[in-house]
Amino acid sequence: MSDDPRRYAPATLRNRDPILAELRRLLPPSGLVLEVASGTGEHCAHFAAALPALDWQPTDLDPENRASIAAWCQGLPNVRAPIAMDAGAAWPVPAADAVLCINMIHIAPWAATEGLMRGAARALPAGAPLILYGPYRQDGVPTAPSNEEFDASLNARDPAWGLRHLEAVAALAAMQGFGPPEVTSMPANNLVVAFRRA
Q: Residue 1: inside a domain, yes or no?
């Protein structure tokens, strides 16, 4: 039995470089990036190594994920120790220069998205980005069969989970003072959705 705490998310190897290309464009040149729901930590380690002028604060509710994040990010001087954070509750990080959230909104109750918008609105200065990645439903756009199957599997695991309508997420962001989203289509029927704090 291995004592290596690192966890693996197979999709990370496929999506990390396309996401990184968007982050190079969207993130500020320096400052603190707060990653909400960092999962295994593979994304954080990859992005921090590629963008060393930025400081990274990974977070996750799951202690095993936090152990995985710490192991993946070991030796990276620009990554802070992972901390426990519930997107829907009070945030332990009061301020950041960017907020990044990958593949959380559909694997969490809607209250987590509401909390994400509230917390990001409090933490970010004017003009700073809130960057989301994942699959969405969009008005007037057919949902890919693979995303329909994924949505059904999420609903089966937890009825509070599932693909969100991009328009509903954007409306929630607007209520918290964010401008309209900049949407970029990504491989495997995912989107990068970037909001700027007004």
A: no
Partners of 79 in beta bridges? 56
- Tell me if residue 88 falls in helix, strand or coil: coil
Please give the C-alpha separations between residue 40 and each of 59, 129, 130, 133, in angstroms, as whole numbers.
10, 23, 20, 16
What's the confidence (pLDDT) of residue 3? 87
pTM here is 0.97
Q: What is the pLDDT of residue 1?
A: 53
Cα–Cα distance for residue pair 131/182, rounded to 1 Å: 9
Q: Which residues of the chain have pLDDT under 70?
A: 1
Asked if the structure places residue 14 within a domain, the reply is yes
Domain count for the chain: 1
Q: How many CB atoms lie under 10 A from the CB of residue 90? A: 11
Q: Measured between alpha carbons, how far is 75 from 186 in angstroms, rounded to an integer?
A: 30
Three-class DSSP labels, 93-155: CCCCCEEEEECCHHHCCHHHHHHHHHHHHHHCCCCCEEEEEECEEECCECCCHHHHHHHHHHH
CATH at 68: 3.40.50.150
- Please say whether the beta carbons of 62 and 37 come within 8 A: no
What is d(CA 190, CA 173) in angstroms, rounded to the nearest whole number?
19
Structural domain range at position 180: 10-196
* Environment class of 100 (CB within 10 Å of its CB; exposed 0-12, middle 13-18, buried 19+): buried
